[in-house]
Design brief:
Layout (H helix, E strand, L loop, with lengths): L9 E7 L3 H11 L6 E5 L5 H5 L2 H18 L15 H11 L6 H9 L2 E5 L1 E4 L4 E6 L2 E13 L3 E3 L15 H5 L7 E5 L3 H13 L3 E6 L10 H13 L3 E4 L3 E5 L16 E5 L4 E4 L1 E4 L3 E3 L32 E3 L10 H19 L19 E4 L4 E6 L2 H6 L4 E7 L3 H6 L6 E7 L4 E9 L6 H9 L4 H4 L12 H7 L4
Parallel strand pairs: 1-2, 1-6, 2-3, 6-16, 8-9, 8-14, 9-10
Antiparallel strand pairs: 4-5, 5-6, 7-15, 11-12, 12-13, 17-18, 18-21, 19-20, 20-21
Helix pairs in contact: 1-9, 3-4, 3-7
Length: 487
Amino acid sequence: MSGPTAAPDDYDVIVLGAGPAGENAAQYAIAGSDRTAALVEHELVGGECSYWACMPSKALLRPTQVLATARNMPGVADKISAHGVDVPAVFARRDEFTHRRDDDSQVQWARSVGIDVLRGTGALAGPRTVTLTGADGTRILHARHAVVLATGTVPVVPDLPGLRAARPWTSRDATNLTEIPHRVLVVGGGVVACETATWLRQLGVEELTVSVRGDRLLPRVEPFAAQRVADRMTHKGLDVRYGTEIRAVQRPEVDDTGVGRIHGGPATVDLSDGSTLEVDEIVVATGRRPASDGLGLDTVGLPDGHLRVADDLTVDGVDGQWLYAVGDLAGRAALTHMGKYQARVCGDVIAARAEGRSTDGPRFRASADHGQVPQVIFTVPEIAAVGRTAEQARTDGFDVAVLEADIDVAGAALARDDYAGHAALVVDRATDTLIGATFVGQEVAELVHAATIALVGQVPLDLLWHAVPSYPTISEVWLRLLESRRP
């Protein structure tokens, strides 16, 4: 196990799961104090985001985005090779960001801020009690103030005939691929499926089919934004099939070749539209479930394994304000930045309670989880959004106005010759404030934080007139949006 040779069995705070949410919860709970904290982790400190999700996926996507910009920039385009990116170099850069799945630097960081790292699997064994099972056996740990659950989620592979036996890729394989299959079936239409399909095509997959059970991609974003992504996929030669599911898979030669390698011979896939595909690999991106198996929730009166978490991040149904949950496991907003946000709130609550301070006030409530969640989807084009879509707002009972404008401003034209984008603001008529915003286009990720601030701050649109966008930037679209509601 990592940590001090004679690590104590009593800590002020014990965190199960050392991903970004767990790390932040532990750090905030003990910062500036003599309190002690332990991170319990059975894989890698840094979690899914650092090694298998956010970091490697964006490292795979960014080089091709830069190449596309260069190809649409006179004075640069003629200097660019007609071929695509240097795939081995892209893989090497990704591996630098993931430290080749070596967590030494993350462990060193934890120790530097006073957090012990305990290797092994942790499970609740009653109030404020954790059983740690590791290479050296089993220990019983006690938490004086808090136990924080931050074990995240795991991918779901549907139990369909032959699918699991075929050893399909999950997101971990797709982000850590070391060889490019020629023919791929991506199963799913959500964020992971769409981002994965984007980089697979850009890195050289020749035949790429996307099987979507519903009638559209990205069902939780504004339809106009999702449609632009779908149109781009079709333009790039992807075969996107809606209302389609796997009926059966046959893969006679299956091989456990390791993460990111093709898992055997070709697979034959029967689809519900009556067609049959032969592919070199299947990527399943149909959702994730809470990693709550074996957490010992029944020992604290939570037999169903489904956590409900209050705004102070305490777990409902457990007395004593000692059990907390953050990140994807909490089921509130399954995004790394939201998990870290919850963890900061959680750590502050734990620290205040440990010191006998009041937890009244907005700092101690995770209010952003309710209709104020920002997200960027790194497809081509990008989608950046915060808050509710127009449909969600109406379903929630708001009377809304929707302000729309193409992103057709000087800053966009200067960014690249083929720039195309669209933006929409969802405005609550009763308060004249934003409750949602969506941007779609090349490199719109940096636009969403301004919308987030306006939404969280409940800034009236008349006041937003005085937030002047700099010229010439893509942010000028804000002026176009506000102008669209002039009488």
